[in-house]
Amino acid sequence: MSNKKTIDPFYTLISGPLTKFLLLLVMAVFFESFSLRAQIPVTDHISQLNPQAAFLYSAIQSHNTFIIPGQKKSAGQTTQNLTPLSIAENFLAENAGRLGTTYSRLNLQPTLVQNSRGATHITFEKIIDGLRVYDSKIRISIGNAGNISFVSGKYRPSELKRMVSPRLNLQEARTIAENYLDVKLQFPEMNPSELMLFDVVGRGLVPAYRVQISAREPRGDWEVVVDAESGEILVLSNRLVYNQKVNGSGNIWTVDPLTNARTYYGGSFVDNSDADSPALNDQRITVTLNDLSTNETGEYILSGPYVEVTDLENPVDSLPHPLQPDGFNFTRQQQSFEAVMVYYHIDQAFRRLLSLGFTESTLQNLLRFKVDPHGMGGADNSYYSPLGNFCAFGEGGVDDAEDPAVIWHEYAHAIQHTLSIVSFDTPGETFSLLEGDADYWAASYKKRISDFEWQQVFMWDKGIKADGGSTFRTGRRCDLNWHYPEDYLLYDNTHQGGQLWSSALMHIQGELGADITDELFVAGHLYWGSEPGFKEAALAIIQADLDIYGGNHLTQITPWFEFHGLIDQSDYQPDIKHKPHPDSENLTGPYQITCQVIPARAAIDTSATWLVWCINANPFDSLKLTESSPNIYSVLIPGTIIPAKVTYYLSVSDQLGYTTHAPGAAMDSVYSFFTGPDTTPPSIEHRLLTDQLADFWPVSVQCLADDNLGVDRVWVEYFINDPGTLMTFDLDPVNDGVYLGTFPEVPPGPIAGDSVFYQIIAIDSSMNRNEIRFPGEAYHRFALYQIPHPPQNIHIVSNVGRVELAWEKYPTDSLSGYFIYRGQDGKTFTLYDSTRQMAFIDTAVTMGSRYFYFLTARINRWESLASDTIDVYVEEVVTISGMPLAPEKFRLGNNYPNPFNPFTHIEYDLPEPANVRLEIYSLLGQRVNTVVQTEQMPGYYRVQWDGTNLRGDAVPSGIYFCRLQAGDFQAVRKMVLVR
User: Fold this and answer.
1) Has residue 969 got a pLDDT over 90?
2) Which of 92-106, 254-268, 275-289 has the lowest average pLDDT?
3) Which of 430, 538, 633, 659 is the most buried (most CB within 10 A)?
């Protein structure tokens, strides 16, 4: 049994002495089975190191990401004499601030130029003193019209604080990395390394060696960043792209045998440990193997311009090399069949790219693509290596290279790596996107060959049965109606989560067909940033259609992206703003309909702007909307001659074919107005005025008045105290039916204690002069009041052991009561008590402490301003001999006030230290609240209950009992709450 350990994959920064921290690994792992996480066997040398706190990209400073689809040239902007590079550099100069720096400090240099039919895609990298900054790339797409069509990527604004001469050379850094990984076997000529700058949190840009090792043991595409001065390992990750397999076959099939036979797993169609069978052999067809090469002895080998079948890792392969070019005929039981399968399908996949319009120069990274039909040491995994740029297919169960869908899926990862700047070790949504993206490429190929169960991506590999279940691990579909984000979040950071993206693309393919959808799918990668999600990928495909086809397919693309929650389709449709026509007493007409039409991504099609209308229940007719001024369209509806109901809606299309109706969905909702005599009065909405402070007179009146024909006038009719003094004032229109006015200042004017009675009246503009009064025939009343004066002459009666306050009697018999506020810092106060007396005693104080009080007076529902604040220091009570004075016995006093609403105070005495519990019970004996539950020292105590239960809810009126338990002492008092 092996004693090697495994470490769950994640990304970390190693920032201490090399020998004292656990290596925490990150893997961008692409398993076909969603339920397994990749685990890399590592040596005891790695697994026995002490653990170090893990960070997910913690060592990398934050970055700015641009996603700018569909940017158009501004008016007067000329780019016809500028190269795409100049246009891109001008954009960077104008937008450097969005990247957190200035143009002179950007240090961005173009490093890659790629072309598609609709755009030029330029990748810029941050380079300082000839050294590339790790993971700082921006891709700018320039449309053929010279517009910036898409910008994405990651930029690190950190600067190089000081350049340090590397203490280590490249070979020494490589040795540190190899020793740390304990590399046993690595692939030759696949290990590029370089000195670069790494953005370390708290240190800025640090010179470091980026050492890349494609190793067999420990298996991985290892990226190790070694500090060029200290030799510390700053970053370590594994970038292998895995695809775990559990099933497969090994014959020369254009599609899997189940799909080709239009059947399901079972009976004669089973793997049977890779054995030949007539049913499976009958699914083979003879295919053309393009551009085969010969070896030095003249034998034919599976090596061509687009794919090279080779033996990169165990198990050792004896690759086929017949003497004749038509000698590659094998049965699935022979190992050579997988070699023929991968050669044929990867060759076809590359030629598919060429047929879609992509050139060999754009796809240069895919030329002579290496593939090992039997790798992974015979394990049930397949993977794409972005570092080595090759695929290896595992064995076990169904051999992975037997299923064409698996081959096309893995090759899709190579397309992603070639055309985009995506980071393969990014977890989460990017991980799921890459998997769903590859699933689409496989499903699209499969559906072009056969429509049988095309939605099951891996029909043979998963052993899909007639009931839809799988024989092996759960399969993946590409026809789901998932909606982002809720459905995706159930499968975040998994292969299964990618089904949302593959389903969206296959739905679009159902509208556009495979050729156009595949072309947009491939071109979309050229717009991706380093960490794309589903929404960015959707915008990329939309932009590809705008750049390549002028947006001709957006009306088929955007509804499906909106259906899956990836865009808002209204962003792509023209917008109609229209104020509905009011009712009219004019029977001869015409009735002018005017609207504003705001284009979205394309100009308005002036031949497709219509008003659709009818009179009463007659059939609908149409009238042409004409542009009378920029973006303003109008039309005249002829007169109805007789009283009638006119119904209409607006319909506008743009040059991309997007159509917008107003209001909403045509026929389901329409505008309408009536012609003929009007008998409908206006409507009024108004919040009635409550009592007002006399000092704030005159007060304003506001209402909302509306009418089907139009409001002619709104006014207020009012009197003060005496109805014989009736007066009026107009309310003026403000906007959108809002009317506003202020009571006039007529000497001598109202005073506190007066009552004001008023009505609002509105009349419409009809010939009938329809009128409405609000709130009705009766007048609404509100009173004017004066704020009560605060209590006066608050003074301390006693501050020994407790606080006793007193104040002057309030000079009115209408006083509702006094409110006492208490605080301990002189700044923050809370309502503490209320009383109708002119004195207050506070026993719930601590001797030697300071307390602050102020009072207010209330008359009816009006509360005065605050009185002066009084500062009280509570002195200790002592006997003549100097000993503290304590109560002689336990006592529970009666609460006061009683009855009460909602506050009452409860006093109790403790002659000795005791564990005190003071509780409130209902008449039924149910505990309502616990007021005190603590250990207390001897003294006099006073607490407050606010009439609430344990949840803080107000309790109803009724009889309640206060129960005190202090040590062995118990007492109960009855209280009455009256609300």
Assistant:
1) yes
2) 92-106
3) 538
Residue 323 pLDDT grade (very low, low, confident, very high; cuts 50, 70, 90): confident
DSSP state letter for 335: T
d(CA 23, CA 4): 15
Tokens of 432: 């799921």
According to DSSP, the β-strands at 862-863 and 850-859 are antiparallel
Cβ neighbours of residue 235 closer than 8 Å, sequence gap 6 or more: 11, 12, 13, 14, 59, 198, 223, 224, 225
Alpha carbons 798 and 872: distance in angstroms, whole number: 9
CA–CA separation, 279 and 272 (whole Å): 12
Determine the Cα–Cα distance for residues 556 and 517; give it in Å rounded to an integer: 11
Q: Which residues pair with 692 in a beta bridge?
A: 784
Which tokens is 637 given?
Answer: 């509806």
Cα separation of 553 and 66, whole Å? Answer: 25
C-alpha distances (whole Å) from 270 to each of 260, 274, 382 are: 14, 9, 21
395 and 288 assigned to the same domain: yes
Helix (H) or strand (E) holding 557: helix 554-563
Q: Whole-number mean pLDDT of the chain? A: 85
Residue 601 lies in a domain: yes
Last residue of a domain, one of 216, 239, 262: 239
Distance CA 708, CA 681 (A): 8
Whether 181 maps to a domain, the answer reads yes
State the maximum Cα–Cα separation within the chain, in Å, rounded to a whole number.
Answer: 125
Q: Model confidence over 1-46: pLDDT tens digits?
A: 333 222 222 222 223 322 222 222 222 223 222 222 222 222 232 3
750 pLDDT above the threshold of 70 = yes
pLDDT tops 50 at residue 71 = no
Give yes or no for residue 921 having a pLDDT over 70: yes
Q: Note whether residue 174 is domain-resident.
A: yes
* Tokens found for residue 819: 């409110």
Instruction: Give the pLDDT mean for 149-159.
Output: 84
User: How many independent structural domains does the chain possess?
Assistant: 6
Same domain for 511 and 651? Answer: no
Q: Are residues 261 and 406 in the same domain?
A: yes
Closest listed residue to residue 653, CA positions, set 662, 643, 644, 641: 662
If asked whether residues 352 and 496 sit together in one domain, one would say yes
Tallying the residues shown for the chain, one arrives at: 979
Q: Backbone phi, then psi, for 937, in 5-degree steps?
A: -85, 165
Asked whether residue 326 falls in the same domain as residue 268, the answer is yes
Q: What percent of the chain has pLDDT over 70?
A: 88
Q: Which of 742, 762, 785 is the last residue of a domain?
A: 785
Q: Domain range spanning residue 938?
A: 886-979
The amino acid present at 621, given as its one-letter code, is D
Residue 786, pLDDT score: 82
Same domain, 209 and 279: no
47 and 21 fall within a common domain: yes
For residues 346 and 385, give the distance between their C-alpha atoms in angstroms, rounded to a whole number.
15
Instruction: Kindly report the number of other CB atoms within 10 A of residue 929's CB atom.
Output: 18
| Gyration radius (Cα) of the chain, Å | 42
Joined tokens for residue 921? 């019970």
Per-residue pLDDT of 380-404, as tens digits, reads 678 899 988 999 998 866 888 899 9
Per-residue pLDDT, averaged over 103-123, amounts to 89
Give the domain CATH number at 477.
3.10.170.10
For residues 904 and 907, what is the distance between their CA atoms, to the nearest angstrom? 10
- Secondary structure of 81-143 in HEC code, one letter for each residue: CCCHHHHHHHHHHHHHHHHCCCHHHCCEEEEEEEECCCEEEEEEEEEECCEEEEEEEEEEEEE
Q: Cα 660–662–666 angle (5° rounding)?
A: 80
- Can you give the CATH number for the domain in which 738 is found? 2.60.40.10
pLDDT tens by residue, 853-880:
999 998 877 888 999 999 999 987 654 4
Which strand (E) or helix (H) includes residue 919?
strand 914-922
Same domain as 187, residue 40: yes
pLDDT digits (tens, 9 = 90+) for 679-712: 999 999 999 999 888 888 999 999 999 999 999 9
